[in-house]
């Protein structure tokens, strides 16, 4: 048997070896993430320093630069033309030489959109913006429904087991809310957030952007893109993006490569954060998780819900016949939760059923106004016609 002195020496050698391994970044397998360096509006040094900073922060991360030769100790695959650079990037991803890549100005197919990550200024919370580039669908409401799923997938891959979801108060927000509620009632788990405003609800206002009321903020890609630029550069005047983790990974059915997008104005801190974002998605097995979540959504009726959003049959029915208003009544009961573009059609649906109604605009958006005692029946009619959720939103 070993004496106590020998045991102590052996323990000391083991601890020293473990410490050295951790310090040298040899503790566990490395995650290799590419960074393309052509196409930035800033000097290449900002990208290189961002890559070096990411490696310093994460001992399990290796960054491979793809672009012109630069002064750095990082591995570099030399390429001097942007189109060729992306070909090399895709080849390296397909061959497993890198597991993910961060790049700029990359085109995804229709159906794939990116999920950005920001830190909100109100409370310093991280928030995923779904989505920020790309197009999930050519129809707005359908795209936003998919964006919600893409945001959930990304948040889960980043370690948030049950991410909360909010829908930014844009055109189609109420349609999207109803569609997601249907998906949820069919068995797909969605955890809706509550607005910080006194009237609450899962449709988010500007205040909620600043406070980060939801883990996942659902929007269309163009609005999300603007939001990312504001969140990233509001402290710098706009020409240098210093905050957040960039526009994020392309998510969508059939997307095999983990490719994250940066703005051409991304500075050193954003580059470093984006590379860490990429490594975390690899560790979170985002591609496998994406396949599982989309399959669950399909089982909950996603495809039929999206088809319903494409048809816009309500407007066709409304133009089939001229509907006259019933005798006028005093209208003090308000029903909200209806898309602004559908508000006049919703009024005519009630007229057809003999209920006098008017359209209006409340503090949270458009409303249908009816007599107080007609509110329950009106909600029932509008829900059946697909203009509000089952119980409606009564102001």
UniProtKB/TrEMBL annotation:
It holds the Pfam family FA_synthesis. One of its GO terms (biological process) is fatty acid biosynthetic process. One of its GO terms (molecular function) is acyltransferase activity, transferring groups other than amino-acyl groups. The active site is at residue 363. InterPro entries: FA_synthesis (IPR003664), Gly_reductase_pC_asu (IPR012116). It comes from Tindallia magadiensis. This is Fatty acid/phospholipid biosynthesis enzyme.
């Amino acid at each position: 048997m070993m004496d106590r002195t020998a045991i102590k020496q052996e323990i000391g050698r083991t601890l020293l070896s473990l410490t050295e391994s951790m310090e040298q970044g040899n503790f566990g397998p490395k995650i290799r993430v590419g960074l393309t360096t052509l196409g930035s509006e800033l000097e290449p040094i900002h990208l290189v320093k961002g890559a070096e900073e990411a490696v310093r922060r994460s001992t399990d991360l290796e960054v491979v630069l793809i672009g012109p030769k630069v002064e750095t100790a990082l591995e570099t695959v030399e390429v001097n033309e942007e189109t060729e650079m992306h070909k090399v990037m895709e080849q390296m991803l397909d061959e497993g030489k890198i597991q993910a890549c961060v790049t700029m100005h990359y085109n995804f197919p229709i159906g794939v959109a990116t999920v950005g990550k920001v830190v909100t200024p109100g409370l310093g919370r991280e928030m995923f913006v779904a989505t920020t580039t790309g197009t999930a669908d050519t129809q707005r409401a359908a795209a936003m429904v998919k964006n919600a799923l893409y945001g959930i997938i990304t948040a889960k891959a980043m370690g948030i087991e049950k991410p909360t979801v909010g829908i930014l108060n844009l055109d189609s927000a109420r349609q999207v809310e109803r569609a997601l509620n249907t998906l949820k009632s069919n068995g797909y788990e969605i955890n809706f957030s509550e607005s910080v405003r006194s009237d609450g609800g899962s449709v988010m206002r500007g205040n909620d952007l600043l406070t980060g009321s939801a883990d996942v903020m659902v929007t269309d890609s163009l609005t999300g893109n603007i939001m990312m630029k504001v969140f990233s550069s509001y402290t710098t005047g706009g020409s240098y993006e210093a905050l957040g983790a960039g526009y994020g990974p392309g998510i969508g059915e059939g997307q095999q490569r983990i490719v994250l997008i940066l703005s051409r104005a991304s500075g050193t801190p954003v580059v470093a954060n984006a590379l860490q974002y990429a490594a975390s998605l690899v560790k979170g097995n985002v591609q496998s998780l994406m396949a599982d979540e989309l399959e669950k959504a399909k089982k909950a009726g996603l495809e039929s819900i999206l088809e319903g959003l494409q048809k816009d049959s309500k407007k066709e029915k409304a133009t089939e016949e001229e509907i006259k208003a019933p005798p006028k009544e005093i209208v003090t009961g308000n029903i909200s939760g209806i898309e602004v573009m559908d508000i006049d059609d919703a009024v005519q649906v009630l007229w057809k059923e003999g209920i006098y109604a008017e359209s209006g605009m409340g503090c949270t958006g458009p409303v249908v106004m009816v007599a107080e005692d007609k509110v329950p029946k009106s909600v029932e009619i509008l829900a059946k016609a697909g203009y509000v959720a089952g119980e409606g939103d009564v102001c």
